[in-house]
Structure formats: C-alpha cells, structure tokens
Design brief:
Length: about 240
C-alpha cells in the first residue's frame, strides 16, 4: 500500500501538470525517457490487452516528421484560403487532404462548444493574438506540427479490434505517461492535431495495419515562455455529477 504521506504529493503532482506549448530543444536523456515509458507501461487496460503501440520520433526522424506535417498543414490551409478552386485542387491532388485514421475536424456538440471556445480564446488572448488575426492564429496552430519545438514526439496507435475500449485504454496510458514525465521534470502536450495526417509517420515506422493513429504527445523540457502558464481551469467538480 502507498504511504499516506504520498497522497498530498500525488495531489500536487496531478494539479501542477499543464500542457506545454513551448519546449527547449534540449534532448531527453534516453534513460529518462525509458523510465517514463516503464511507468506508463503499468497503466491498466481492458483484460490487460495493452492495445496500444507507440512510434517515438527523435533526431532526424522527428525533424522529417515535423517538415512533412507542416508541409501538409500549409498545403491544406492554402487550399482552404483559395476558395472553391483551392478546395477542388485539394480534392483532385489529395495532397494535404487529411489521411489520418480518425477525423480530427468535426462540429463540436453544442453543450461542449462554450468550453472549447473559452479554452481557445484564453490561449490566444494570453499570446496577444486577436480574434480576427488569421495569420497569427495559423502560425500558432502550425506549431502543433513542429511539436512546439519539443525534441521528441510520441505517436499513439490503438488496436481497431478492441473498438472504443482501446481508445479508453490509450487515454489512461497517455495520462500515466504525462504524469510520470511531469514527476521526472519533463513537460508534455497531448495533441489530437497530430492524428490529422497519418502518412508521414507511417512512412517512417512499421505500423501494423490494425493499429490506428489516435493522437500524439510532444515531450521534452518546458521553456519559460508565458504560454506554458496557460491554465484553462475546469468545471466545478460538482458540475460533473448528474442529478439523481
Ligand atoms: C486527447 C487530447 C488531445 C489534445 N489535443 C491538443 C492539440 O491538438 N493541441 C493543443 O495545443 N492541445 C491539445 N490538448 C491539450 C488540451 O487543450 C489541454 O489538456 C486542456 O486545455 C487542459 O489544459 P491542461 O492540459 O494544461 O490542464 C489535448 C489534450 C488531450 C487530452
């Protein structure tokens, strides 16, 4: 049984984790990354199937992936800005068209929109980016595909055969990984955006066909950029509870 005194440390650890969106280029020592992965590997899963796999990109592979993803992001953005003609060209060439396993661009349910908007606006406000400054918004969004400068990107794949439950298991795994990273002095950002294009990561890694790209995680050391202080807050805990 864990000692009672660790409960407070645990609370402090989980409460102080934040998504990091500006990293130092400092590489992660291999032993440190292995320690974090070993912790993450203790995550529970459906029948202990551990229905997830990781593609971990550092160094030249990381750089090639960032270049490939940014190129697709730029191509797709240009096509969208190019009106009907731009969209037709995107459809004809298919280059830049999302080729991920899951759709990352969808209408948000009405009841979730306010939180999504508040989070986006809060982030852009902190960065001094105006609501109509599309160029600056584009540049900020693009940073997702440069892994916010992190030296390592982890792509998370789930087994399609376990349906929704592999995604649930991967979520538990990802949070265990992010908390262990935080405890070891590393910073992370889980990124659904990194599931938009699967082609670049499939070209670099041997990924079994049953495994589908669900998200990425940028990992490294946080810079002291103000963006890393962004804390969008949460519902009051009571708001999570359904009334009887
Ligand atoms: C599954 C998942 C996907 C996410 N995708 C992105 C993303 O694509 N880009 C990004 O900047 N943040 C992304 N985030 C980070 C969330 O915006 C962040 O967790 C949320 O705003 C709460 O902030 P916090 O992590 O600092 O507590 C994602 C988080 C999760 C769990």
């Amino acid at each position: 049984m864990a000692p009672a005194s660790s409960a407070q440390e645990f609370s402090e650890l989980v409460r102080s984790r934040r998504s990091t969106r500006d990293f130092l280029t400092t590489p992660i020592p291999q032993g440190l990354l292995e320690a974090v992965l070993a912790d993450a590997n203790t995550a529970p899963s459906w029948s202990n199937t551990q229905p997830y796999r990781l593609a971990i990109a550092s160094g030249a592979v990381r750089d090639r992936l960032a270049a490939g993803l940014c190129e697709r992001f730029d191509t797709a953005t240009r096509a969208q800005q190019g009106g009907l003609l731009g969209k037709l060209k995107l459809l004809a060439t298919r280059h830049g068209l999302p080729d991920g396993d899951f759709t990352t661009n969808f209408e948000y349910p009405e009841d979730l929109q306010p939180r999504r908007r508040a989070t986006g606006h809060g982030l852009y406000e902190l960065l001094g980016i105006g609501r109509k400054d599309h160029a600056a918004r584009h540049q900020q969004m693009r940073k997702n595909f440069e892994f916010f400068g992190a030296p390592t990107a982890i792509f998370v794949f789930v087994h399609a055969g376990l349906r929704e439950f592999s995604i649930l298991d991967a979520g538990i795994f990802v949070q265990t990984l992010m908390l262990s990273a935080h405890a070891h002095g590393l910073a992370t950002c889980a990124q659904g955006a990194l599931a938009t294009w699967g082609g670049p990561v499939r070209a670099e890694f041997d990924i079994p066909k049953d495994y589908k790209l669900i998200c990425g995680i940028s990992i490294g050391y946080a810079s002291d950029h103000a963006v890393n202080q962004f804390n969008p807050g949460r519902h009051e805990a009571g708001a999570l509870r359904l009334t009887a």
